[in-house]
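Recap quiz, item 2
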Amino acid sequence: MTRVFTARRIITMNPALPSGEAVAIRDGRILAVGTLEEVQGWDPEAPVDETFADKVLTPGFIEAHSHVMAGGMWTMPYVGFFDRRDPKGKVWPGCQSLETVIERLIEAEAEMGDDLTDPLVAWGLDPIYFDDERLLAPHLDRVSESRPILIFHASGHLATVNSAMLARHEIDADATTPGVDKDGDGNPTGELQEPPAMRLARSGMAKLGSRLGTEEAMWNYAAESRNAGHTLVTDLGTSQLTEPDQLERWSRVVNDPEYPCRAVVAMSSAFGGPSDPAVWAEFSKELPDHETDKLRFGIVKLMLDGSIQGFTARVSAPHYYRPPEGHPGNGLWLIAPDQFASILETYHRAGLTVHVHCNGDEATEVFLDAMEEVLTAYPRPDHRHTVQHCQLAKPHQYRRMAAMGMCANIFANHIFYWGDQHRDLTMGPERAAGMDACATALRAGVPTSIHSDAPVTPMGHLHTAWCAVNRVTASGEVLGPDERISVEEALAAITIGAAFQLKLDHDIGSIEAGKLADFAVLEEDPLTVDPMTLKDIGVWGTILGGVPFPAAS
Amino acid sequence: MGHHPRRRSLPRGQLIPVTVIGGYLGAGKTTLLNHILASTSERIAVLVNDFGEINIDAALIESATSSTMTLTNGCICCSLVDGLSAAFDAMLELDPAPDRIVIEASGVADPAGVSAFAHGPGLQLDATVVVVDSETIQATIDDAYVGDTVSSQLAAADIIVANKADLADVQLWLTGRYPTTLITPATNAVVAPELLFGHAPTPRAAASHEAADIFESWQITRDRPLPRAVIERYLHSLPDRVVRAKGIVWSSDRPDRQLIVHRVGRRVTVRVGPPWPGEESTSLALIGLLSTP
């Protein structure tokens, strides 16, 4: 059956026909886009649906780098600094002081059951915005003196617990684990720094961990994506894919007609699973049997370094600007540079697309050098291997990426969330201005996308596009105005650009005859609004395979 | 949280010693691991944190009734899922419990980051052992990509094994850089168990062990409580030739709990342990070199 949707404007992201006013859909795919008269040429009897007559359609947004655990976080209270909308559409106002954090927790504790052994776990705290005022056990003791509480910070490197949690796990003055913060008298303050210390609060960390990979997390993840106009989620990547039932579970959930997104699930050895790349490469051969229009594989994710804000990314000279006292001078390798080429070779020869986490430019250099070595020995057309995050890549590195047929997925959200810190602490003004260099990438001809890395930063491609277009930091300054890109370029990055690096651009990413009918339904035209309001455009929801999925409100 | 008490080979409340092996690619970490498995009859749980095939001698694993787990590069930056933490959970679940956990860190891991986990519940950090390739270490430490990594590894060591000592002698160079660290030369990563574990070789390995006569050991026991400060001072004041000291102390500050003390090289750890299972008493074991090598 054919169905026609009309719209105020259809932005196709197909340069050969950039705009239309109607789209005809048959069997979940696009039959035609153009004027109403043109698309009716295929089937003059087709019903015309005018629900979206005053809306703007774009290709469905594609987030090519985020994590399913983002959906799991929403099963627990949010205490972050910025307003955030949960999968059900409820807006959680940002907690902009420690007092509001405590109030939020008191409310959440009141809603919990009588079982006081069940810990209260909340997430998203980012005291970097609180002028050095720290959340400590005495604050949380005001919430409850008997129920253990754990607050998981946005950085992922810190947790704050209350006295009940300290007592429950016997974390006291005698604790010798590095990272158990202590006051002048030698007693724990409640702040647990880094995983070895965080791990001591076992009941809290166990509750957190148990929420991240559930089916509820998968549904939440897609719901939050749909609310933001996304029609495809990635999990970049999972180490559990080889475990029994994992493939079956992804298939069952994603192929459910009610599931509002397509999914690309990347395999990764970064968090467990087999250690030998050859085992993963062999395993990947069975993945195509599980692929459907909604669920795809074919990507492997590797990690070379840490994060810039954690001073653990590998950064070339002159290294970090104002690192904390005792910092060793550079970041951490997660894979030895000498070992990397052979790992890359294994996956490259298996025909997989390799996406490599490279925050620092030294990590990018190691990836590029290994890529050149492997490609010289084993040429392979159209591999689309991708530098992920790519935050400090330099112009010459983008030129090398272009020359080798590689892609860049740039962490544009960093400009807003940590741009001020990068300018003042990690990189200094010059290199901070050149971070997340979307304009340089495009000038060099590198196929580019941009991402949120949710849950590291909130998911929402209009916001991510806004970051790349405006480069405004949390304090309101413009960081590196010459790396700003146009709204049109940003829209391409979050649609056809992302589809390209997932090797799905034949099927999604633009509105063209024959492609899957995946659209974002917007209240305003992103190409005509003031670019500073791009992030504020209302999202009605999405159309996935021709089926409308309204956002939760 | 719903776990039933299980039979353990260690008495309840006893902490499992953890040995962390670090060092750059090719230094001989796996060789040392295989040597450890060959030279003890302890039940050892092995965690290997690396890419690629794991080259542990399967026969040793079997005969030592040990178990192996592997972990690739557990993310240490912005990840909520901490692979290492999960691996420790799994090791603590092993039934029967192992006598010792040995972790071979990846070639680029900071051993201090790994050993930090060994202060956790049920665990006791025994020693951080960093292996270097004597032939290449002086070049590696200047390498633009990994020099700082290797430098951090060495700084985290309680014991540095200067491996491949038959090919090059870097003992002096290492002593100059790390004057307070215990440094031992080795060939094929053969290191005396007295150094590695703080006790004499177990029967299974004794037959092939020739170097034991360079060590002597002492036992100290007392059946009256001692102030914690006194015992700490004593441990810090031991001469350098005492390479290992460990034991359980009855302290007058916390008489209800065992005070677990430990010295490797010059690092002293004092920790409040579990309650006394039976009679309180202080018992210390010291191992020292017979003469300065």
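Chain A has three domains: 2-54, 73-210, 213-544.
The radius of gyration of chain A is 24 Å.
End of item.
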